[in-house]
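Checklist before submission:
- one chain only
- standard amino acids only
- sequence pasted in full

Submission:
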Amino acid sequence: MNRLITFFFIFLISLPSRSQVSVDTAVLKERLAEMFLGEGVRIFNVKVHGNPSSLGLFQAYRSNFPMEEGIVLSTGRASAVQRQNESGKTTTSMRESMGGDYDLGKMVTRQVFNCTVLEFDFIPMFDSLYFDYVFGSEEYPEYVGSPYNDVFCLLIYGPNFKKPLNLARVGNPARTVMINSVNHKKNAEYFLPNYRFIPSEEIPYTIEYDGFTKLLTASCRVTRGKIHHLKIAIGNVNDFSYDSGVFLRAGSFGSRGGQMPKQLPFDFDARNPEPGFERTLDSIADLMKSNPNWKIAVLGHTDSIGSHEYNLKLSRERAQHIADELIKRGVSQSRIFVKGYAETKPLRSNSEEEGRKRNRRVEIIIRE
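Returned file contents:
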Protein backbone atom coordinates (compact mmCIF):
# COMPACT_ATOMS: atom_id res chain seq x y z
CA MET A 1 0.00 0.00 0.00
CA ASN A 2 2.83 2.39 0.88
CA ARG A 3 4.46 1.66 -2.47
CA LEU A 4 1.20 2.53 -4.25
CA ILE A 5 0.87 5.81 -2.33
CA THR A 6 4.49 6.66 -3.09
CA PHE A 7 3.98 5.98 -6.80
CA PHE A 8 0.81 8.13 -6.89
CA PHE A 9 2.60 10.97 -5.11
CA ILE A 10 5.50 10.86 -7.57
CA PHE A 11 3.01 10.84 -10.44
CA LEU A 12 1.30 13.98 -9.11
CA ILE A 13 4.64 15.72 -8.62
CA SER A 14 5.61 14.92 -12.21
CA LEU A 15 2.46 16.36 -13.81
CA PRO A 16 3.44 20.07 -13.76
CA SER A 17 6.80 19.26 -15.36
CA ARG A 18 5.12 18.04 -18.56
CA SER A 19 5.24 20.77 -21.14
CA GLN A 20 1.92 22.04 -22.39
CA VAL A 21 0.72 24.93 -24.51
CA SER A 22 -2.40 26.77 -23.35
CA VAL A 23 -4.53 29.26 -25.31
CA ASP A 24 -7.10 31.74 -24.00
CA THR A 25 -9.44 33.13 -26.67
CA ALA A 26 -11.78 34.91 -24.23
CA VAL A 27 -9.74 38.13 -24.20
CA LEU A 28 -10.45 41.72 -25.21
CA LYS A 29 -8.58 43.22 -28.15
CA GLU A 30 -7.00 45.78 -25.80
CA ARG A 31 -5.55 42.91 -23.76
CA LEU A 32 -4.00 41.45 -26.90
CA ALA A 33 -2.26 44.76 -27.61
CA GLU A 34 -1.13 45.06 -24.01
CA MET A 35 0.47 41.60 -24.14
CA PHE A 36 2.37 42.51 -27.32
CA LEU A 37 3.50 45.95 -26.14
CA GLY A 38 7.19 46.50 -25.33
CA GLU A 39 9.39 49.54 -24.79
CA GLY A 40 9.22 52.87 -26.62
CA VAL A 41 5.84 52.71 -28.42
CA ARG A 42 2.25 53.76 -27.82
CA ILE A 43 -0.55 51.64 -29.34
CA PHE A 44 -4.12 52.78 -30.04
CA ASN A 45 -7.12 52.11 -32.37
CA VAL A 46 -6.80 48.34 -31.97
CA LYS A 47 -9.02 46.31 -34.35
CA VAL A 48 -9.53 42.58 -34.92
CA HIS A 49 -11.22 40.80 -37.84
CA GLY A 50 -12.21 37.17 -38.17
CA ASN A 51 -13.77 34.61 -35.88
CA PRO A 52 -13.13 35.40 -32.18
CA SER A 53 -12.00 31.79 -31.66
CA SER A 54 -9.14 32.28 -34.13
CA LEU A 55 -6.93 34.47 -31.97
CA GLY A 56 -5.96 34.69 -28.33
CA LEU A 57 -3.21 34.66 -25.73
CA PHE A 58 -0.98 31.60 -25.48
CA GLN A 59 1.59 30.24 -23.03
CA ALA A 60 4.20 27.59 -23.78
CA TYR A 61 6.24 27.33 -20.58
CA ARG A 62 8.55 24.34 -20.05
CA SER A 63 8.47 23.71 -23.78
CA ASN A 64 11.02 23.81 -26.58
CA PHE A 65 8.68 25.93 -28.67
CA PRO A 66 10.65 29.05 -29.73
CA MET A 67 8.73 31.48 -27.49
CA GLU A 68 7.08 31.16 -24.09
CA GLU A 69 4.06 33.47 -24.32
CA GLY A 70 2.34 35.94 -26.57
CA ILE A 71 -0.48 36.21 -29.13
CA VAL A 72 -1.54 33.58 -31.67
CA LEU A 73 -3.60 34.22 -34.84
CA SER A 74 -4.88 31.12 -36.66
CA THR A 75 -6.76 30.15 -39.81
CA GLY A 76 -8.77 27.79 -37.58
CA ARG A 77 -9.47 27.63 -33.87
CA ALA A 78 -6.49 28.97 -31.96
CA SER A 79 -7.07 26.41 -29.20
CA ALA A 80 -6.16 23.60 -31.64
CA VAL A 81 -2.44 24.33 -31.20
CA GLN A 82 -2.46 23.42 -27.51
CA ARG A 83 -1.62 19.72 -27.73
CA GLN A 84 1.15 17.44 -28.88
CA ASN A 85 1.19 16.76 -32.60
CA GLU A 86 -1.12 13.79 -33.13
CA SER A 87 -2.20 14.45 -36.72
CA GLY A 88 -0.63 15.66 -39.95
CA LYS A 89 -3.83 17.29 -41.17
CA THR A 90 -5.55 19.10 -38.32
CA THR A 91 -8.35 21.30 -39.68
CA THR A 92 -10.53 23.45 -37.43
CA SER A 93 -11.44 26.22 -39.87
CA MET A 94 -14.91 27.68 -39.51
CA ARG A 95 -16.92 28.16 -42.70
CA GLU A 96 -18.83 31.00 -41.08
CA SER A 97 -15.57 33.04 -41.07
CA MET A 98 -14.41 32.15 -44.57
CA GLY A 99 -13.78 35.78 -45.55
CA GLY A 100 -10.67 36.86 -47.43
CA ASP A 101 -8.31 39.82 -47.09
CA TYR A 102 -7.26 42.28 -49.78
CA ASP A 103 -3.60 42.49 -48.78
CA LEU A 104 -3.16 38.73 -48.41
CA GLY A 105 -4.91 38.21 -51.73
CA LYS A 106 -2.29 40.33 -53.50
CA MET A 107 0.51 38.08 -52.20
CA VAL A 108 -0.70 34.85 -53.83
CA THR A 109 -2.36 33.76 -57.08
CA ARG A 110 -5.16 31.72 -55.47
CA GLN A 111 -8.13 32.73 -53.33
CA VAL A 112 -7.58 33.30 -49.60
CA PHE A 113 -10.02 32.07 -46.94
CA ASN A 114 -10.45 32.03 -43.13
CA CYS A 115 -8.48 35.23 -42.58
CA THR A 116 -7.69 36.48 -39.08
CA VAL A 117 -6.40 40.03 -38.68
CA LEU A 118 -5.03 42.15 -35.82
CA GLU A 119 -4.19 45.77 -36.62
CA PHE A 120 -3.53 48.99 -34.76
CA ASP A 121 -1.98 52.45 -34.97
CA PHE A 122 1.19 53.22 -33.04
CA ILE A 123 3.63 56.04 -32.38
CA PRO A 124 7.31 55.09 -31.93
CA MET A 125 9.50 57.08 -29.57
CA PHE A 126 12.64 56.26 -31.53
CA ASP A 127 13.82 55.59 -35.08
CA SER A 128 13.55 51.81 -35.24
CA LEU A 129 10.82 49.19 -34.81
CA TYR A 130 11.23 45.53 -33.91
CA PHE A 131 9.23 42.51 -32.70
CA ASP A 132 9.53 38.71 -32.64
CA TYR A 133 7.31 36.15 -34.34
CA VAL A 134 6.96 32.48 -35.35
CA PHE A 135 4.96 31.09 -38.28
CA GLY A 136 3.67 27.50 -38.17
CA SER A 137 1.39 25.25 -40.20
CA GLU A 138 -0.18 21.83 -40.74
CA GLU A 139 0.63 22.23 -44.47
CA TYR A 140 4.21 21.12 -43.70
CA PRO A 141 5.79 19.06 -45.18
CA GLU A 142 3.49 17.41 -47.72
CA TYR A 143 2.17 20.61 -49.36
CA VAL A 144 5.50 22.41 -49.72
CA GLY A 145 5.70 23.64 -53.32
CA SER A 146 1.96 23.27 -53.92
CA PRO A 147 -0.81 25.86 -54.48
CA TYR A 148 -1.90 25.31 -50.85
CA ASN A 149 0.59 27.92 -49.71
CA ASP A 150 -0.96 29.42 -46.56
CA VAL A 151 0.14 33.01 -46.23
CA PHE A 152 0.49 35.73 -43.62
CA CYS A 153 1.79 39.28 -43.53
CA LEU A 154 3.22 41.82 -41.11
CA LEU A 155 2.43 45.03 -42.99
CA ILE A 156 3.64 48.42 -41.79
CA TYR A 157 2.29 51.74 -43.08
CA GLY A 158 3.92 55.08 -42.26
CA PRO A 159 5.81 58.20 -43.36
CA ASN A 160 8.86 56.15 -44.42
CA PHE A 161 6.93 53.97 -46.87
CA LYS A 162 5.42 54.88 -50.25
CA LYS A 163 3.48 51.61 -50.04
CA PRO A 164 2.98 49.10 -47.21
CA LEU A 165 6.09 47.04 -46.37
CA ASN A 166 5.80 43.38 -45.37
CA LEU A 167 8.23 42.83 -42.50
CA ALA A 168 7.87 39.01 -42.62
CA ARG A 169 10.97 38.39 -44.74
CA VAL A 170 14.06 36.20 -44.28
CA GLY A 171 17.05 34.98 -46.25
CA ASN A 172 19.43 36.46 -48.80
CA PRO A 173 17.87 37.55 -51.08
CA ALA A 174 14.97 38.26 -48.73
CA ARG A 175 11.84 36.17 -49.29
CA THR A 176 8.37 36.60 -47.82
CA VAL A 177 7.83 34.03 -45.07
CA MET A 178 5.26 31.40 -46.15
CA ILE A 179 4.98 27.63 -46.64
CA ASN A 180 6.83 27.61 -49.97
CA SER A 181 9.66 29.93 -48.91
CA VAL A 182 10.60 28.60 -45.45
CA ASN A 183 10.58 24.81 -45.09
CA HIS A 184 12.86 21.76 -44.98
CA LYS A 185 14.12 22.54 -48.51
CA LYS A 186 14.25 26.35 -48.73
CA ASN A 187 15.71 28.57 -46.01
CA ALA A 188 15.90 25.40 -43.92
CA GLU A 189 18.09 27.12 -41.34
CA TYR A 190 14.98 29.01 -40.21
CA PHE A 191 12.70 25.93 -40.08
CA LEU A 192 11.88 23.48 -37.26
CA PRO A 193 10.17 20.19 -38.29
CA ASN A 194 7.61 18.61 -35.95
CA TYR A 195 6.50 15.56 -37.93
CA ARG A 196 6.11 12.84 -35.30
CA PHE A 197 2.51 11.99 -34.50
CA ILE A 198 2.81 9.69 -31.46
CA PRO A 199 2.31 11.65 -28.22
CA SER A 200 5.14 10.99 -25.76
CA GLU A 201 7.54 12.71 -23.42
CA GLU A 202 10.18 12.51 -26.17
CA ILE A 203 8.35 14.77 -28.62
CA PRO A 204 10.42 17.99 -28.73
CA TYR A 205 7.62 20.50 -29.30
CA THR A 206 4.28 20.35 -27.49
CA ILE A 207 2.27 21.99 -30.25
CA GLU A 208 0.00 20.61 -32.98
CA TYR A 209 1.56 22.16 -36.09
CA ASP A 210 3.72 19.89 -38.27
CA GLY A 211 6.41 22.55 -38.63
CA PHE A 212 7.21 26.14 -37.81
CA THR A 213 9.94 28.74 -38.13
CA LYS A 214 12.53 29.51 -35.56
CA LEU A 215 12.04 32.71 -33.57
CA LEU A 216 12.32 35.48 -36.19
CA THR A 217 12.66 39.23 -35.64
CA ALA A 218 10.86 41.78 -37.83
CA SER A 219 12.49 45.21 -37.88
CA CYS A 220 12.63 48.42 -39.89
CA ARG A 221 13.35 52.14 -39.66
CA VAL A 222 10.46 54.36 -38.60
CA THR A 223 9.88 58.08 -37.97
CA ARG A 224 9.84 58.91 -34.28
CA GLY A 225 6.79 60.75 -33.00
CA LYS A 226 4.68 60.05 -36.12
CA ILE A 227 1.62 57.80 -36.50
CA HIS A 228 2.24 54.42 -38.13
CA HIS A 229 -0.02 51.42 -38.70
CA LEU A 230 0.72 47.70 -38.30
CA LYS A 231 -1.43 44.92 -39.75
CA ILE A 232 -0.91 41.25 -38.88
CA ALA A 233 -3.00 38.89 -41.03
CA ILE A 234 -3.08 35.16 -41.86
CA GLY A 235 -5.25 33.06 -44.17
CA ASN A 236 -5.73 29.68 -45.86
CA VAL A 237 -4.83 29.63 -49.56
CA ASN A 238 -6.90 27.71 -52.12
CA ASP A 239 -8.98 25.76 -49.56
CA PHE A 240 -10.37 25.76 -46.01
CA SER A 241 -8.18 22.91 -44.76
CA TYR A 242 -5.06 22.42 -42.65
CA ASP A 243 -4.58 25.11 -40.01
CA SER A 244 -1.76 27.66 -39.99
CA GLY A 245 -0.87 30.27 -37.38
CA VAL A 246 1.39 33.18 -36.54
CA PHE A 247 2.71 33.75 -33.00
CA LEU A 248 3.80 37.18 -31.70
CA ARG A 249 6.15 37.17 -28.70
CA ALA A 250 4.88 38.92 -25.58
CA GLY A 251 6.46 42.29 -24.86
CA SER A 252 8.56 42.27 -28.04
CA PHE A 253 6.85 45.10 -29.97
CA GLY A 254 9.12 48.05 -29.31
CA SER A 255 11.11 50.99 -30.60
CA ARG A 256 14.61 52.16 -29.83
CA GLY A 257 17.20 54.56 -31.10
CA GLY A 258 20.77 53.93 -32.14
CA GLN A 259 22.39 50.60 -31.34
CA MET A 260 20.93 47.39 -29.98
CA PRO A 261 20.66 47.31 -26.18
CA LYS A 262 23.83 46.46 -24.28
CA GLN A 263 23.42 43.21 -22.35
CA LEU A 264 25.34 42.23 -19.23
CA PRO A 265 25.16 38.49 -18.35
CA PHE A 266 24.68 37.19 -14.79
CA ASP A 267 25.39 33.85 -13.13
CA PHE A 268 22.54 31.94 -11.55
CA ASP A 269 21.06 33.85 -8.55
CA ALA A 270 23.85 36.45 -8.78
CA ARG A 271 23.30 40.17 -8.07
CA ASN A 272 26.55 41.23 -9.75
CA PRO A 273 27.28 40.72 -13.48
CA GLU A 274 29.90 38.33 -14.79
CA PRO A 275 33.52 39.64 -14.86
CA GLY A 276 34.49 42.07 -17.59
CA PHE A 277 31.54 44.46 -17.35
CA GLU A 278 33.57 47.44 -16.17
CA ARG A 279 34.79 48.51 -19.62
CA THR A 280 31.23 48.45 -20.99
CA LEU A 281 29.97 50.66 -18.17
CA ASP A 282 32.95 53.03 -18.56
CA SER A 283 32.11 53.60 -22.24
CA ILE A 284 28.39 54.06 -21.53
CA ALA A 285 29.11 56.57 -18.77
CA ASP A 286 31.43 58.54 -21.06
CA LEU A 287 28.75 58.58 -23.77
CA MET A 288 26.11 59.81 -21.32
CA LYS A 289 28.34 62.56 -19.98
CA SER A 290 29.07 63.73 -23.53
CA ASN A 291 25.33 63.91 -24.28
CA PRO A 292 23.66 65.54 -21.26
CA ASN A 293 20.14 65.38 -22.78
CA TRP A 294 20.18 61.60 -23.20
CA LYS A 295 18.62 59.22 -20.70
CA ILE A 296 19.16 55.55 -20.00
CA ALA A 297 16.98 52.56 -19.10
CA VAL A 298 18.47 49.75 -17.00
CA LEU A 299 16.24 46.66 -17.18
CA GLY A 300 16.81 43.53 -15.09
CA HIS A 301 15.81 39.98 -16.10
CA THR A 302 16.02 36.44 -14.70
CA ASP A 303 15.47 32.88 -15.85
CA SER A 304 12.28 31.04 -14.86
CA ILE A 305 13.70 29.09 -11.91
CA GLY A 306 12.11 30.18 -8.63
CA SER A 307 8.90 32.01 -7.82
CA HIS A 308 7.83 35.12 -9.72
CA GLU A 309 8.04 37.20 -6.53
CA TYR A 310 11.63 36.13 -5.89
CA ASN A 311 12.64 36.65 -9.52
CA LEU A 312 11.06 40.12 -9.57
CA LYS A 313 13.10 41.14 -6.52
CA LEU A 314 16.26 39.62 -8.01
CA SER A 315 15.78 41.36 -11.37
CA ARG A 316 15.32 44.72 -9.63
CA GLU A 317 18.45 44.18 -7.56
CA ARG A 318 20.45 43.35 -10.67
CA ALA A 319 19.24 46.47 -12.47
CA GLN A 320 19.83 48.66 -9.44
CA HIS A 321 23.39 47.36 -9.06
CA ILE A 322 24.19 48.41 -12.64
CA ALA A 323 22.49 51.78 -12.09
CA ASP A 324 24.62 52.34 -8.97
CA GLU A 325 27.75 51.54 -10.97
CA LEU A 326 26.79 54.16 -13.57
CA ILE A 327 26.10 56.71 -10.85
CA LYS A 328 29.58 56.04 -9.44
CA ARG A 329 30.91 56.86 -12.92
CA GLY A 330 29.24 60.28 -12.93
CA VAL A 331 25.85 59.64 -14.53
CA SER A 332 23.08 61.52 -12.69
CA GLN A 333 20.52 59.32 -10.97
CA SER A 334 17.73 61.47 -12.46
CA ARG A 335 18.74 60.28 -15.94
CA ILE A 336 18.49 56.57 -15.13
CA PHE A 337 15.26 54.54 -15.30
CA VAL A 338 15.44 51.24 -13.41
CA LYS A 339 12.99 48.34 -13.71
CA GLY A 340 12.93 44.59 -13.09
CA TYR A 341 10.94 42.22 -15.29
CA ALA A 342 11.66 38.92 -13.50
CA GLU A 343 11.25 36.01 -15.96
CA THR A 344 8.54 37.66 -18.11
CA LYS A 345 10.70 38.74 -21.08
CA PRO A 346 12.94 35.79 -22.01
CA LEU A 347 15.26 35.93 -25.01
CA ARG A 348 15.28 32.14 -25.34
CA SER A 349 13.34 29.18 -23.97
CA ASN A 350 13.98 28.45 -20.28
CA SER A 351 13.67 24.71 -20.87
CA GLU A 352 17.45 24.30 -21.26
CA GLU A 353 20.42 25.79 -19.42
CA GLU A 354 21.76 27.58 -22.51
CA GLY A 355 18.47 29.47 -22.82
CA ARG A 356 18.33 30.25 -19.09
CA LYS A 357 21.88 31.59 -19.27
CA ARG A 358 20.87 34.01 -22.06
CA ASN A 359 17.86 35.17 -20.03
CA ARG A 360 19.86 36.07 -16.89
CA ARG A 361 20.84 39.58 -17.89
CA VAL A 362 20.56 43.34 -17.50
CA GLU A 363 19.76 45.36 -20.63
CA ILE A 364 21.01 48.93 -20.94
CA ILE A 365 19.08 51.04 -23.46
CA ILE A 366 20.23 54.58 -24.26
CA ARG A 367 17.41 56.94 -25.17
CA GLU A 368 18.43 59.96 -27.19
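Reviewer check: The radius of gyration is 22 Å.
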